[in-house]
Amino acid sequence: MKKISIAIDGPAAAGKSTIAKLVARNLNYTYIDTGAMYRCVAYCALKNHVNFDDETGVSALLKNIDIRMLPDGTIHLNQEDVTSLIRENEVSMGASLVSKYQAVREFLVDKQREMAQGGGVILDGRDIGTVVLKDAELKIYQIASIECRAMRRHKENMERGIASDLEAIKAEIALRDEQDMTRKISPLKKADDAIEIDTSDMTLDEVVAHVMNLVAQRV
Ligand code: CDP
Ligand code: CDP
Ligand code: CDP
């Protein structure tokens, strides 16, 4: 069967990575979490006491950044396992702030295209269908209401035993979406040829089945 490239974009907590992982497993494709790469840059800035607002400082970090996404799903930054460290709230907001810099985007987009070479890949992020994989055979724009997205994150936190405030989560993702949608370079938007899926009232199984159908039409 032909191995295609799949792009999934959408706002924070729309379920992109959950769906991408499940579809990748079904198809035996490689899943590439591009958000994790922006999170690594933000984490690196925090660790080196570089302010997220300092474009020159953040850009200067790039020459010493080595990001490895291992087949077991862990993420290593300069040999340190940062898989859970990059999920902290401070890093989420930092990722959204450093992702507006041209040097950061060019550096990571190059890496992402290199990893995507040959197809059989599924990438999720904000600019996959519009910039990174403009020629992807399948593009999905995954959305859900803000209430729904905040509630999903809240539930996740509670299941993990992490203190969680629903209103604070809602405010954080709304602010991050606003930043991601209004930045000058590669803002989050639906590609003209992307298929929109509103997952607000769908179960995970329903979304996966829908995506698998779309894949079947293309391979
Ligand atoms: O990657 P993104 O930030 O878009 O979202 P995520 O990290 O996959 O988080 C989405 C959360 O919503 C996960 O806990 C999913 O189990 C849950 N969920 C979903 O993604 N889709 C549904 N239809 C229902 C629940
Ligand atoms: O999981 P969640 O949806 O909360 O965020 P993420 O996908 O891990 O992305 C974190 C941040 O990185 C986003 O808010 C964007 O600012 C940025 N990002 C981006 O600019 N381009 C991408 N392809 C992926 C993420
Ligand atoms: O030129 P080459 O394909 O060797 O490298 P590239 O331009 O960096 O592209 C690497 C991969 O990114 C390609 O194989 C495509 O899968 C994807 N790509 C795309 O889908 N749309 C673009 N406009 C550019 C690259």
What class do helices, strands and sheet pairing give? alpha/beta
Calculate the terminal CA-CA distance, rounded to whole Å. 6 Å
CATH class: Alpha Beta
Report helical residue fraction.
40-55%
Oligomerization category of the chains in this entry: single chain
Listed once per kind, the bound small molecules are: cytidine-5'-diphosphate
CATH architecture: 3-Layer(aba) Sandwich
Shape: globular
Strand-and-helix sequence, N→C? EHEHHEEEHHEHEHHEH
CATH superfamily placement: P-loop containing nucleotide triphosphate hydrolases
| CATH topology type | Rossmann fold
Strand content: 5-15%
> What's the Cα radius of gyration?
17 Å
Number of domains: 1
Domain Cytidylate kinase: 6-216
InterPro entries: Cytidylate_kin (IPR003136), Cytidylate_kinase_dom (IPR011994), P-loop_NTPase (IPR027417)
Subcellular location: Cytoplasm
Binding site for ATP: 10-18
Description:
The model has no long low-confidence stretch (mean pLDDT 97). The chain has a single domain, classed as P-loop containing nucleotide triphosphate hydrolases (Rossmann fold). Helix 7 crosses helix 8. Strand 3 and strand 4 (75-77) form a beta hairpin. The protein has helices at residues 16-27, 34-47, 55-61, 89-98, 102-116, 128-132, 146-159, 166-182, 204-216, and strands at 5-9, 30-33, 67-69, 75-77, 80-81, 121-125, 138-143, 195-198. The chain has a five-stranded parallel sheet with strand order 2-6-1-7-8, sandwiched between helices. A three-stranded antiparallel sheet has the order 3-4-5, covered by helices on one side. Helix content is 49%, strand content 15%. It starts with a strand and ends with a helix. The protein is an alpha/beta fold and 219 residues long. Bound molecules: cytidine-5'-diphosphate (3 copies). One cytidine-5'-diphosphate binds next to helix 5. Belongs to the cytidylate kinase family. Type 1 subfamily. It is found in: Cytoplasm. ATP binds at residues 10-18. Pfam families: Cytidylate_kin (PF02224). Keywords: ATP-binding, Cytoplasm, Kinase, Nucleotide-binding, Transferase.
